[in-house]
Amino acid sequence: MKERDPVLRRPAVAGRFYSADPDRLRQEVARYVVGSGKEEAIGILSPHAGLMYSGHVAGAVYSSILSPETYILVGPNHTGLGAPVSLMSSGAWEMPMGSFAVDGELGRMILQEVPFAAEDLSAHLYEHSLEVQLPFIGYFSPSAKILPLTIMTASLEECRELGAGIAR
């Protein structure tokens, strides 16, 4: 049996929500970075609009945390593609400033813990909500791994179960 080639998810909103040029993107992100103390965080909330709209808030958030080895990114699915709760647990996300490896081992563990979550690449191909976090993650921690997860529809109970499964 031939092993599947790793998936390389290309940027969907580069050049529209943030600069597609690596040097200009670094400069753009640097404008939003603030000099505050850093603390460990269990989780954060960060906006997902274009950097010109939400960069100040996202910059303040990412400037204030210690970067983990892996970011579990949970965001809305605006496109309507894919499963209601979609996880991408292999491959990498390409960005102008470099690529982010997907933490496949963590993804497989979450899929075992959360039976209604599905491995589904289609939910991630054109979705911007997680992608716009990556310029900040790359600025502070270029070697960090990611685990992308989108939610199109989920009940409050499913959200609780998802959180508990991630925590386990």
Structural description of this entry:
This protein has 168 residues and is an alpha/beta fold. Helices cover 32% and strands 17% of the residues. It is built from five helices and seven strands; from the N terminus they run E-H-H-E-E-E-E-H-E-H-E-H. It has helices spanning 22-32, 51-63, 104-113, 134-140, 156-167, and strands spanning 8-9, 70-76, 85-87, 92-95, 98-101, 118-119, 145-151. A four-stranded mixed β-sheet has the order 2-7-3-6. A three-stranded mixed β-sheet has the order 1-4-5, covered by helices on one side. The longest helix is centred in the middle third of the chain and has 13 residues, at 51-63. The radius of gyration is 16 Å and the shape is globular. 32% of the residues are buried. The mean pLDDT is 94.
The end-to-end distance, rounded to whole angstroms, is 33 Å
Average pLDDT rating: 94
Output the structural class. Answer: alpha/beta
Biggest sheet, in brief?
Answer: 4 strands, mixed
How is the largest sheet built, in terms of strand order? Answer: 2-7-3-6
Unreliable stretches = none
* Tally of separate helices: 5
Q: Per the principal axes of the C-alpha atoms, what is the gross shape?
A: globular
Q: Portion of residues in helices?
A: 25-40%
Beta-strand level of the residues, as a percent range? 15-25%
Order of helices and strands: EHHEEEEHEHEH
Would you report the number of β strands?
7
Q: What is Rg?
A: 16 Å
State the gist of this model.
With 168 residues, the protein is of the alpha/beta class.
What secondary-structure arrangement, pairings included, does this model have?
Elements: E1 8-9, H1 22-32, H2 51-63, E2 70-76, E3 85-87, E4 92-95, E5 98-101, H3 104-113, E6 118-119, H4 134-140, E7 145-151, H5 156-167
Parallel strand pairs: 1-4, 2-7, 3-6
Antiparallel strand pairs: 3-7, 4-5
